[in-house]
Amino acid sequence: MYYSRTEDYIYGLETINSNSITEHPKVANKMACFVANGLSASFTIVAGYFFHSSMPASDFHSLTLQVIKLLTDCGFMVLRIVTDNHPPNVGLFKNLCGGTLENYFNHPYLPMPIFLSFDYCHAIKNARNLFLSHNMNSTTGVISSSYLKALYGLQRGWPLKPVRYLTKKHLYPSNLEKMNVLRAVQIFSPTVTSALKLLKEEKYEDFVDSDATILYMENMFHFFQVHNISSRRHYIHALDGNVAPYVNISDQRLHWLNTTFQNYIDDIQSTSASTGYKCLSSETAHALKFIAKSTFLCVQFLLTQAGFYYVLTRSFSSDAVEATFSHIRLKGGSNDTTDARAAEYALRQILRTGILKSSSSANTARTLSHISRNELSHQRSTVAEFAEEDVEELFLPTDLRFKIHSLQRNEIPEMNLYSASVAFLSGYIIMKLQKKINVMTALPH
Fold first, then answer.
1. Does residue 222 contact residue 256 with C-beta atoms inside 8 Å?
2. 88-98 per-position pLDDT tens digit
């Protein structure tokens, strides 16, 4: 989609003719949304959205290819597709790979691969939910949430708590609270595992055999940590190499993702099955391994073939999609069951203002973000209107372009509500002036 600020019109919207609506229409109560998120530059663009009732797998597949083609035509290189492991999305991945689920498939329009992955935030939530629901087994011992619940009961009577944020919502979440990513990460955090280690070392009776549980929690937190890298310098202040950006393919974290973590998940599944314990669900176990393998391959490709000097993996998540849907619900009156008109209005506001405002309880890193902090050209491509021999005449001489560039302001204005409203009003004034000029030039002299 393309928004013209001067015309206050969004190009690319498709509507249905009112005459084709039958007496008993099929209500489109779902929305598929494609959001482009930058890896080498900071931008988030709503590439397309489609209201539907129950989209067939073939239509979902063709729409995805259409969005990839449109983004490629605009000059973007689609490198990775991320979604949750909902069955329709798994079916889409299989169709893209020719019938079998693989970590990548060949780009249909460029000589490069497109990597496929599930969202690591959804995977960590599922791992937490299964950890709280039943015991599992591994070669190091039984994995049980009873140690965590014992810690919660023990510290309730203490004036100074080892884990101050551990609450009932962490251990006994409702169906809605199970969707919270922050609490899932907090359960596996070093603060909790350090408290369990201390109680074990101090020979507390309820924590003697907690080694396997601590190892499970540490592995799940490490899995989240190596996928949530968002800064080039944070590791210096945090004194933690696990949050450093990836800069070479010999990084130990890549080996851990490709080998150690894969073997650990297989160990839980096989040992639990052989000893009569419940294990991770097949979907969750496969998603965890699939994400780890995809991240390993994608980081390798970026560092060796795509020319990246470093890789920040938080951009691999579906935060952009979560922020978009949270913005839609927030604009619809904080309503989870919003209507199509309110959803479309919220999406148009993203295009007009360039601002994504998420709810404070949304599963996103920031509650306020911008679709871009770079000066992206809003002009529609018109190169196709000219013949190849005329293209060179469109460009100015090099020395003249340097002189013009030196006169331009280099400061990028801060993107906020004030600048968005000023830009919107300026575009409206320019549109009116253009109409006046066109009318005056059309009058006979």
1. yes
2. 889 999 999 98
